[in-house]
Amino acid sequence: MSGTYTLFGNRGCGSALVAAALELSKLPYHYQEVDYSKDCPERDRLLELNPLGQVPTLLLPDGTVMTESAAIILLLHIRWPLAGLVPSGEIHFPAFLRWLMLINTAIYPTFTYGDTPQKWLPGVANPQVLTDTTNAHREALWQQVNAAADPEGPWFLGPTFCAIDLYIAVMSHWRPGEAWFAEHCPKLGAIAAQVAKHPRLEALFEAEFA
Fold first, then answer.
1. pLDDT single digits (tens) 34-85
2. pLDDT score, position 86
3. In percent, how much of the chain has pLDDT > 70?
4. For a disulfide at 189, which of 7, 120, 136, 181, Cβ 3.0-4.6 Å?
């Protein structure tokens, strides 16, 4: 579809995934930075589009609102398959779907609950326990992902680049952090480093995580 996309995001957050996908797809887009932690006109606009007030939120050229990074990735693939966000063929596609959904449904929620434990455990004397347990669970999940990565590389699915590599590259900057990935999930750490050096993504990753 022709026209300009508008990506509502926050530096260093999950919106970086969609920004990277848009860069690879070469679809024209405008980026709107939103500080969703405080009242501001940009946050009000975000809430109009996405009542959850979360990023990424993508406004399509026809005015349709898209949320949830996995859904956005699949849509962008349909509109610009040459970007290579989703692998083709019977060999890699099932694995792609499995790990895309695991990252989104199992790993991502550990931040939702662990970042603000007091929100989910009101009145509890030590809500930090939720952060501690979700941190440990996340580390175990990432080690499962690392074990599933192709041992020959250079990407998660071997020679085939896909959006899973974008998730790894962005989320390696979040808890438990790059040093932990280098030590405990070296295959994922290597993937993250390669994505950050991609000629179409290097400037974006520097701006998001420098």
1. 987 777 888 999 999 999 999 999 999 999 999 999 999 999 999 999 999 9
2. 97
3. 100
4. 181
Residues 38 and 123 in one domain: no
> Taking the model in full, what pTM does it have?
0.95
Dist CA 43 CA 49 (whole Å)? 10
Domain of residue 26, residue span: 6-83
**Residue the block writes with tokens 């949830």:** 68
Question: Which residues fall within 8 angstroms of residue 37, CB to CB, at 6 or more apart?
Answer: none
Residues 103 and 41 in one domain: no
pLDDT band at 1 (very low <50, low <70, confident <90, very high): low
Distance CA 97, CA 73 (A): 11
Total number of domains constituting the chain:
2
Give CA–CA dist 112/156, Å, rounded: 25
Does residue 1 form part of some domain? no
Residues 94-111 have a mean pLDDT of: 97
Helices of type H across the chain: 15-25, 41-49, 69-79, 93-102, 108-114, 117-120, 128-148, 163-171, 178-184, 186-196, 202-209
* AA letter at 70: A
Task: Give me the sign of the Cα torsion angle 7, 9, 11, 15.
Answer: negative
Q: Are residues 70 and 102 in the same domain?
A: no
For residues 53 and 36, the answer to whether their CB atoms sit within 8 Å is: yes
